[in-house]
From TrEMBL:
Protein's UniProt name: FTR1 family iron permease
Compartment(s): Membrane
GO cellular component: high-affinity iron permease complex
Primary residence: membrane
GO MF entries: ferrous iron transmembrane transporter activity
């Protein structure tokens, strides 16, 4: 569970920084406006609050629906949540890679259009969508992580999530002050790599569950056994396993799934873009 708590803190931290970046762009644009900035800021924070409420409601619906299922269906539901969380992490990494460079310009362009129409509901909608999107992604990830840990404990993950959020506020403030030490681009590049490893870890957990459910075959016995050197149930091995998907005694299906995942990621990062330009 220790490694899973680290994952929770990391994702809350990273997603909160992303949401704060969008809110910061909105707030900075409103600050530069000479007319109705105070009114626009009311719509901004109302949108932030509405986005948070939607995220909380989505999280409650996710948990309550899972608890309402019969015991034999809950494993399948949690496995689906784990795999969806993995896919969502990969999707948000590539979304930021596509839109990160133009994010500020796109947001300010939308804000200007809303201001030209004297429609502050556009500010409300932008803030709501930004917060609800990041919050919903985080909720799915948290549910998938807790399902992977097979833990119903709430207090420790909640405390860690709060710590991750407070750390995000401090990180955002430092990035604003010290862009010469670490740029936003470098921050997102480093955290993207960590997120991709987290997605790989969730994928392996999902494959483990599917094998346990009889949906996937193992294809082999244990390919190797490194548990004498680094057991994946120990403090260090467990942490590495939850961060990267490491298994001390993997079978062929786990290895194939892991290699296929990184093959697809490599292709998407380094091969798909030149082909897209040619097309």
């Amino acid at each position: 569970m220790g490694g899973q708590l680290g994952n929770i803190a990391f994702v809350i931290w990273r997603e909160s920084v992303e949401a704060l970046l969008v809110i910061g762009i909105l707030n900075a644009w409103l600050t530069r406006q000479q007319v109705d900035a105070a009114r626009g800021r009311l719509y901004l924070w109302a949108g932030v609050g509405a986005g948070l409420l939607i995220s909380v409601a989505f999280g409650l619906a996710l948990v309550l629906f899972g608890e309402a299922l019969p015991d034999d269906a809950q494993t399948g539901y949690q496995t689906a949540a784990v795999l969806i969380a993995a896919a969502l992490i990969v999707q948000m990494v590539f979304w930021m890679r596509r839109h990160g460079r133009t994010l500020k310009r796109d947001i300010e362009s939308s804000l200007q259009s809303a201001a030209d129409r004297s429609n502050w509901w556009g500010v409300f909608a932008l803030a709501l969508i930004a917060v609800a999107r990041e919050g919903s992604e985080t909720v799915v990830f948290l549910y998938g992580t807790l399902a992977a840990a097979r833990s119903g404990a709430i207090a420790a993950p909640a405390a860690v999530a709060l710590g991750g959020f407070l750390l995000a506020i401090g990180t955002y403030y430092l990035l604003q002050l010290g862009s010469r030490i670490m740029s936003w681009k470098l921050f997102f590049r480093i955290t993207e790599i960590m997120l991709l490893f987290l997605a790989a870890s969730l994928l392996v957990t999902g494959v483990d569950n599917l094998i346990g459910l009889g949906v996937l075959p193992r294809l082999s016995g244990r390919l190797w056994d490194s548990s004498a050197i680094l057991p994946d149930y120990g403090p260090v091995g467990g942490l590495i396993g939850s961060l990267t998907g490491y298994r001390a005694r993997p079978d062929l299906m786990q290895v194939l799934a892991y290699l296929a995942y990184w093959g697809v990621i490599y292709w998407a990062l380094f091969w798909s873009r030149p082909q897209a330009k040619i097309a």
